[in-house]
């Protein structure tokens, strides 16, 4: 996707400067569960960036610091391979360039999953309000994903932004993230021996268009003993996850079966996301 890094006009270098300090760009690296996304250290990033700028005859940091208040220490750069031109490392955000996509989510699980589709993207967490009176799982998931995407897109016009939100529903009742270990035990006890729905809403803002979609997966827990429920809740794994469990970790042992997209349960349905990205003309690792 290196060739998709879109140029900015000279007058937009100030915006590029602020984007440098806004958040890291992630690059895939091998991990136990596939590919984890790891930002380079500051020193590595600066060295690689310096090499790329020297190759193009530009002074290091000259344009990126022209706005006077960006700190290079806040910036991470990825470096997997060199671009087709042979001078700019793919994944670098340089003055006059930007990432092909912004993921409006701080979830490390979504970052890892998106890395299976795109080699380079930027991560900027959204601060959008997530309170809602909506009770339908699909509508709620899409509504929250839309808020996240639009909030980040508003601050970064001209950039493609992907928002996502996952909700868990049991018998028409929504299970959010548990507040503490005790509530986590309650959630897992309710899910024990039951089939529930995991719904992820997606929203992609690109070229002035807003595209939405959602994916639903049925997950069945095996009947759990009180000891197992207490053990899982005590692990703390489920405290930051809708429904109070994570299927990609220790929570695997809770599950009897899955009907649907497994990546959706982790937090980002890859098939549906791939469709959205292709729909706006973004090339992926699969194209």
What structural keywords apply?
287 residues; alpha+beta; 8 helices; 10 strands; 30% helix; elongated; disordered N terminus
| Largest sheet, strands/sense/barrel | 8 strands, mixed
Sheet/helix structural class: alpha+beta
Uncertain residue segments: 1-98
Helical content stands at 25-40%
Task: Output the helix-strand order.
Answer: HEEEHEHEHEEHEEHEHH
Gyration radius (Cα, Å) is 20 Å
Shape: elongated
- Total count of helical runs of at least 4 residues: 8
Number of strands: 10
How much of the sequence lies in strands comes to 15-25%
| Termini separation | 10 Å
Would you give an account of this structure?
There is one protein chain. The protein has 287 residues and is α+β, with helices and mostly antiparallel strands. The protein contains 8 helices and 10 strands. The protein has helices at residues 13-22, 42-55, 108-114, 137-155, 181-191, 226-235, 262-266, 270-279; strands at 25-26, 28-31, 34-37, 102-103, 121-123, 161-170, 173-175, 195-206, 209-221, 255-259. Strands 1, 4, 5, 6, 7, 8, 9 and 10 form an 8-stranded mixed β-sheet that branches. Helix 5 (181-191) packs across helix 6 (226-235). The N and C termini lie close together (10 Å). The model is unreliable at 1-98 (pLDDT under 50).
